[in-house]
Every structure is written in C-alpha cells, then in structure tokens.
C-alpha cells in the first residue's frame, strides 16, 4: 500500500519509471546565478562611481539592468538605467556615443516606469531627458518632455515648475528670431535673461 501511494505521488508530480528531474531546479539555479551577477555588477558600478570612472560605472549599471530584466525585476532595471544615464551625463559633453547612450538609457527607464505605473519616477526620467535636450539645444523636444513630466507629476509644485520651464522654452523658440534681429538692446537683454535663467 505504501508503494502504491508513493507511485501515485510520483505520477502526480510527473514522475514515473525513468523519470528525470524537472528543469525547474536548473532554472532556479540559473536565476540565483543571475541575481548574484546583478548584485556584483551593482557593487562594481558603485565602486566605479566612487572612483569617478563614469564610463565604466555607466556600462556596469547598464549590464545590471539587462540581468534585472531577465529576472523580471523591472523596478531595479529602471533604477539601474537611470543611474547609468546619470553616469553618462558626466562624460557626454564631447562624446556623441555617450549622449546617445544617455538618451537610450533614459528612454528605456521611462518606458519601464510607465509600464509599472510609477508616475513619479516617470516624471523624473522626463525631466532628465528634458535637461539633456536643453543641453543639446533641442528646445522643442525639451519643452515636450517638460510638459510630459508636468502631466506625470500631477498637480504638485514639481508639475508647476515643469510647466513653467516648458513655457519658457516655447517663449524662447517663438522669439528666437526677434532676439537675433532686434537692434533694441532692451528687447535683446530681456530675451537673453529668459534664455540665461532658463537654460544656462
């Protein structure tokens, strides 16, 4: 009777004569390895941050994000992508590849935060993208991202600040030719003040 019960339990679990262990254990072992790798990459990235090796830190955070995504941890992946973008921001002044990598990391982080309905972090990502586009003098795109950030923030102070920045950029875009062509020093100084306080 005991043997019959044991056989039924094995059959219910998918076992039987010549039964091989399910690959679940192997997958769990692989997940543990990936978790350990992601943790190691995070520690490596922060050690590069402390040493101000920004490129290495950015790459390590990016690799961590890839492992986090394989593990299904979208929140950790998005946070790692944000950190990667911040590291790239330290080196992209004269590096087109770093600028592109920053934009890509922020775009991916934004998509993950929106997927998780984490609007606060989505808004923060939009602000960082807006500031990056301001640095690149892509003012219309920057204005659009400030508007998106304002929408994600809701009705708090950050939202008002983002709408103000978006408006300032639109004003600058609308008056760009006036600034260039006006002989009136007062008009030029007023527009320059808007430009300097909003962008520089």
Automatic annotation (TrEMBL):
Keywords on record: Protein transport, Transport
A Pfam entry, by short name: SNAP
InterPro entries named among the record's database cross-references: NSF_attach (IPR000744), TPR-like_helical_dom_sf (IPR011990)
A GO MF label: soluble NSF attachment protein activity
GO cellular component: SNARE complex; vacuolar membrane
Domain of life where this protein originates: Eukaryota
Keyword Lipid biosynthesis found: no
One BP term from GO: intracellular protein transport
Gene3D superfamilies found in the cross-reference section: Tetratricopeptide repeat domain (1.25.40.10)
Family as reported in the entry's similarity comment: Belongs to the SNAP family.
Official protein name in the record: MalT-like TPR region domain-containing protein
């Amino acid at each position: 009777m005991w043997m019959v019960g044991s056989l039924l339990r094995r059959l219910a679990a998918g076992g039987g004569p010549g039964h091989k262990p399910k690959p679940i254990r192997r997958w769990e072992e692989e997940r543990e390895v990936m978790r350990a790798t992601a943790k190691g990459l995070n520690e490596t990235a922060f050690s590069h941050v402390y040493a101000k090796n920004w490129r290495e830190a950015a790459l390590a955070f990016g690799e961590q994000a890839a492992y986090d995504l394989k593990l299904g941890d979208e929140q950790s992946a998005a946070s790692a992508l944000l950190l990667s973008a911040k590291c790239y921001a330290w080196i992209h002044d004269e590096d087109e590849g770093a600028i592109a990598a920053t934009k890509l990391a922020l775009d991916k982080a934004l998509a993950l935060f929106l997927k998780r309905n984490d609007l606060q972090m989505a808004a923060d990502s939009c602000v960082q993208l807006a500031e990056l586009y301001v640095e690149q003098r892509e003012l219309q795109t920057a204005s659009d991202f400030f508007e998106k950030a304002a929408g994600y923030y809701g009705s708090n102070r950050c939202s008002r600040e983002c709408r103000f920045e978006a408006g300032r950029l639109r004003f600058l875009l609308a008056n760009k030719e006036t600034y260039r062509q006006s002989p009136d020093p007062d008009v030029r100084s007023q527009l320059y003040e808007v430009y300097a306080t909003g962008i520089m």
